[in-house]
Amino acid sequence: MSHLQTLLLDTLLGTKHVDSAALIKIQERSLCVASPGFNVMPSDVRTLVNGFAKNPLQTRREGLYFKEKDYRCVRADEYSLYAKNENTGVVVVKTHLYLLVATYTEGMYPSVCVEATESLGDYLRKKGS
Asked: pTM surpassing 0.85?
């Protein structure tokens, strides 16, 4: 298991309020590492990378289509995208090299998912990643 996968599992899935997580390499537009069973398709990678390439207001208006679901965007800025679909959601945090993706499902606290994902994003940015 790689250091990055261990980080995902311990700091995100370890909260019990993140269902799945992944790191996407921004420059290559490719999946770097993901939690077991979390299959992020190339079209999903493009959607997330493009979500940051657009004007944040445009992303917020249009929402996201991720993992075959339409999500309503509740936050979009230079470093973060939060989107929800009923009782599920996706949190995406941008670092220098990666997009950090975390999902939550019904029964999980979105605020814990957001806090854990943002904290790991801050850590990776400080490390230059």
From this structure: yes
